[in-house]
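Q: Sequence in, structure out?
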Amino acid sequence: MNRIVTFAVTAFIALMLLSSTVFVVDQRKFAIVFALGEVKQVIREPGLHFKLPPPFQNVIYLDKRIQTLDSPEADRFITAEKMNILVDSFVKWRVVDPRLYFVRFGGDEGRAGNRMSQIVKAALNEEITKRTVREVISGQRGKVMEGLRAKVDAEAKEIGVQILDVRLKRVDYVEQINNSVYERMKAERLRVANELRSTGSADSEKIRADADKQRSVILAEAYREAEKIKGEGDAKATAIYAEAFGRNPEFYKFYRSLEAYRASFKTKADVMLVDPNSEFFKYFKGSGSAGK
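A: Exactly. Output:
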């Protein structure tokens, strides 16, 4: 009975020792094997591996996947024209040298994040201070991010990290500058509107003057044409009168007298004081004589 108990205890201890010498590395992890606090081995490939039991050797794991470092709030920077802007950014990174990364930060991701934030902020400051607001916001934003990634990646290699991408999520003015920019934009729009109004007024006056000129020319030409037609009509009428007078002068005189009578006695209220023996009543007398 004692032998069975002893065997069972021995087997259990052996199993515990064996299990403490075996470890599995996930495909998403790096494994660092320590011997008495010193890094002895870095395992990059997934699978089953062996080590000495504690306290001779221990294992810690580091994530090899791409991670994101996102700034909690926007940082303030000064541009080339000495204007303050707020920049919100994020960084895509991963561990490429587990040994160096662990030596620098002891596996503390918080310390690693703080260090990378400092690196990114310094690189951002260097890139933004040599560019204007317009260039940072739109004109050279791609160049800013590319230069930023190259600078940050070069420094991040010293801590065992590779920077895959750096992006500017938001670039904005600070509150005071927003107000001044708005006022400047408003003033600029008003200036452009006033220029357009003055240009429109000048064009309107020009069009109106041209229209008045054309109107005067058209009226003058129409008046000239009317006078010409009227003159031709008068000439034809005079010719007709002359021809009629030449054919029968007495009838022509009679006809002209009738027109004079018609013009003189248009209404019953018309009154004329004329000598009855005057030439004006010549045909009245003749008409009366003819009646008799």
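The chain has eight helices and nine strands.
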